[in-house]
Amino acid sequence: MPRPGVRLVFGRDAKPDGFRPAGSLLVRPIRPAGIQPCRTNQWSGRLSKEIPVSTNSASVAWLTQESYDRLKAELEHLSGPGRTEIVARIEQARSEGDLKENGGYHAAKEEQGKTEARIRQLTQLLETAHVGEAPADDGVVEPGMLVEARVAGDVETFLLGSREIAGDSSIDVYSEKSPLGASIQGLKAGDSTTYTAPNGKSISVEIISAKPYAA
């Protein structure tokens, strides 16, 4: 009687490591479901457990209710009247004849591509966004705050949060999940910290001020 967790394999199946005579016995352990295998490093002989990596890369953006309503209205327009208008322009241009030399047709198709990309972007953003009130004016760095800080010796002013909060403003925006954004959350004027840039360099940051962003 084989031990629990062991499968007996005979004949042609019993040859994972070179030649085995027909009918020879190979004891092959059965790995219980949900257990990751261990992989042996052929140089050191050590075992290193395989760690599963999450494939969910969708990030959650913080939005004010005002920003959420504005983006929702934009999405409704693009996916409704906006999409219908572009389709009508494409059909009109198509009816004019040869598409190779039809500038209006190609321009409408390009705009259609950009519109569909924006619709997908807004749909994902609004489905995953965390909607909340504007942050309190307490000087503490958090999403939705306009931050003035000395970064690597240079004074910078930027919005912490989603680019969509800023709307059409040209202000610099850092996500709260970025290395800089994550390192300064919860700090206030006079606090200092450091963060590691993507190139591995350590960057110093000193908070000068933080106040709620007003579009």
Spatial extent as radius of gyration = 29 Å
Number of beta strands: 11
Strand order of the largest sheet: 9-8-7-11-10
Question: Major sheet: size, sense and barrel closure?
Answer: 5 strands, mixed
Query: DSSP helix count?
Result: 4
Protein name: Transcription elongation factor GreA
Family: Belongs to the GreA/GreB family.
Keywords: DNA-binding, Elongation factor, Protein biosynthesis, Transcription, Transcription regulation
InterPro entries: GreA/GreB_C_sf (IPR036953), TF_GreA/GreB_CS (IPR018151), Tscrpt_elong_fac_GreA/B (IPR028624), Tscrpt_elong_fac_GreA/B_C (IPR001437), Tscrpt_elong_fac_GreA/B_fam (IPR023459), Tscrpt_elong_fac_GreA/B_N (IPR022691), Tscrpt_elong_fac_GreA/B_N_sf (IPR036805)
SSE order and pairing:
Layout: E1 6-9, E2 26-29, E3 38-40, E4 47-49, E5 62-64, H1 65-94, H2 103-128, E6 130-132, E7 145-151, E8 154-160, H3 163-166, E9 172-174, H4 179-184, E10 192-196, E11 202-212
Parallel strand pairs: 5-6, 8-9
Antiparallel strand pairs: 1-2, 3-4, 7-8, 7-11, 10-11
Helix pairs in contact: 1-2
Describe the protein in words.
This protein is of the alpha+beta class. Among the domains are: 71 residues, Orthogonal Bundle (Helix Hairpins), CATH 1.10.287; 73 residues, Chitinase A, domain 3 (Roll). It contains 4 helices and 11 strands; from the N terminus they run E-E-E-E-E-H-H-E-E-E-H-E-H-E-E. The longest helix is centred in the middle third of the chain and has 30 residues. About 25% of the residues have low confidence. InterPro entries: GreA/GreB_C_sf, TF_GreA/GreB_CS, Tscrpt_elong_fac_GreA/B, Tscrpt_elong_fac_GreA/B_C, Tscrpt_elong_fac_GreA/B_fam, Tscrpt_elong_fac_GreA/B_N, Tscrpt_elong_fac_GreA/B_N_sf. Belongs to the GreA/GreB family. This is Transcription elongation factor GreA. It comes from Arthrobacter yangruifuii.
